[in-house]
Write a structure and sequence with these properties.
With about 100 residues, the chain is α+β, with helices and mostly antiparallel strands. Helices cover about 30% and strands about 45% of the residues.
């Protein structure tokens, strides 16, 4: 299961690990001097036996107040995708 959603300068992007899928929320920037885009991870999900948890990278999510609503939308989308993946991992015959 791969997924990718972008709202403005924020992106929700799946990431495959060796045995499971996880995701990051990244913030895109444009470097005018070098004329290139670059991104930083601001939050990522980790998986354990109980499901997924979202972790911030330092205070990065708090540093960009102008996107908080979009950040919340991507968090909700990420949890929806990852909770579905967790259900399928836990019960391969799961069919909603």
């Amino acid at each position: 299961m791969k997924f990718n959603h972008r709202i403005g300068d924020l992106e929700l992007r799946s990431r495959e690990r060796e045995t499971y899928i996880t995701a990051d929320i990244i913030k895109w920037f444009y470097d005018k001097d070098n004329k290139r885009d670059y991104c930083i991870v601001i939050a990522s999900w980790n998986k354990d036996d109980e499901g997924y948890e979202l972790r911030f990278v330092g205070s990065r999510p708090m540093e960009f107040y102008d996107y908080w609503d979009n950040f919340g939308k991507l968090v909700k989308m990420g949890y929806e995708y990852l909770n579905e993946a967790f259900k399928q991992d836990f019960n391969p015959n799961y069919d909603d």
